[in-house]
Amino acid sequence: MTENRNHYVLKKRKTEKTFRGVQVQYNENYYINPNTNEEVYFRSAEKENAKELVEAYKKQVGLLTSKEIKEIRKKYRLTQREYSFALGLGEITVHRFEKGSIQSDADNQLMILSTNPKHFINMLDDNRERFNKERYNKIRRELVDKIALGKHRIVKMDVDEMRKYSIVTTDIEDIVVYIVNNYNASTIDETTLNHYKLHKFLYFLQGLALYIYRKPVFIEDIYTSKIGPYVKMLKVKYGGSEVNVEKEKVYLNTATHKLIDLILEEYGKYDSSYLCKLTLEEFQFNGREEKISTEQLRNYFTRVYEQQ
């Protein structure tokens, strides 16, 4: 007989059971008959609760949950079979883990290591004979790309927290004043802010604003060059070895203020030559002077911070 739970009320309660010698607390589903207020038994609900118990156990003893394993695999856009092969496991092993089987500590550690593309590419190389050449090469190219993108994910931030504020398009001169006056002179090169760093800071600011808020923080165009990106409109005014501004204080909206502070904190650690090299890698400028569109910037920074 087919179970019909549509006429009953689903509820949850905290339940504790001993599983594999461990006291595990988990959320148990149960159904109530709204007419009699009595609890109703469903075999399917019992099976769902058994899965909840196993997942809670995994989490409690430090194992990856089935959902977490699936998320790792999906991040690499692999089938269950391919992920198993890359890890050096049996053909259906990952399928079983995602369905609720409990992995050994060794297999769990292997999957944790695989979350780092640098480690995972080594695993893939060790098991390349399990893939046809075309598929192996495609997976490896995507991993190389992920590793390259990871190198450029420098700013550590809570995107959801940042999005609680709205960014507004701001006068770029005010942004420059804020950057110059708040730049930490005790960074790695121990110099005052020069025009190389200033233009890179503006590039990172615009890219992150487009990724986080889907709108530019300033309207001026950014161009490529043999030394990386620069804001063309500011090239003459701020083109010297040292950047000076006349204003001492400006007022920026909260989102712009927070984003610039993050950029100064994270990118300010690096010297000018490293920032030039870093940005040259991002768009493969090849010395040409070309305008970088807002779409290009948004797409690139989205890939860096969402690994797509």
Features:
single chain; 308 residues; mainly alpha; three-stranded antiparallel sheet; 6 strands; 50% helix
Shape: elongated
How many domain regions?
Answer: 3
- Strand order across the biggest sheet? 1-2-3
Number of beta-strand segments = 6
Order of helices and strands: EEEHHHHHHHHHHEEHHEH
Largest sheet: 3 strands, antiparallel
**Arithmetic mean of pLDDT:** 89
Taking all Cα atoms into account, the compactness measure Rg is: 26 Å
Helical residues, percent:
40-55%
How many separate helices? 13
Overall SS class: mainly alpha
Q: Please report the distance between the alpha carbons of the first and last residues.
A: 46 Å
Write up what this structure looks like.
There is one protein chain. The protein is mainly alpha-helical. The protein is elongated and about 75 Å long. Helices cover 50% and strands 10% of the residues. The chain has helices at 43-60, 66-75, 80-87, 93-98, 105-114, 117-126, 133-151, 159-162, 172-182, 195-213, 254-267, 272-283, 294-306; strands at residues 9-19, 22-33, 38-40, 222-223, 230-231, 291-292. The mean pLDDT is 89. The two termini are 46 Å apart. The protein has 3 domains: 9-60, no CATH class; 66-151, no CATH class; 159-306, no CATH class. The protein contains 13 helices and 6 strands. The strands form 2 sheets. It has a 3-stranded antiparallel beta sheet with strand order 1-2-3, covered by helices on one side.
Short description:
The chain contains 13 helices and six strands. By secondary structure, it is mainly α.
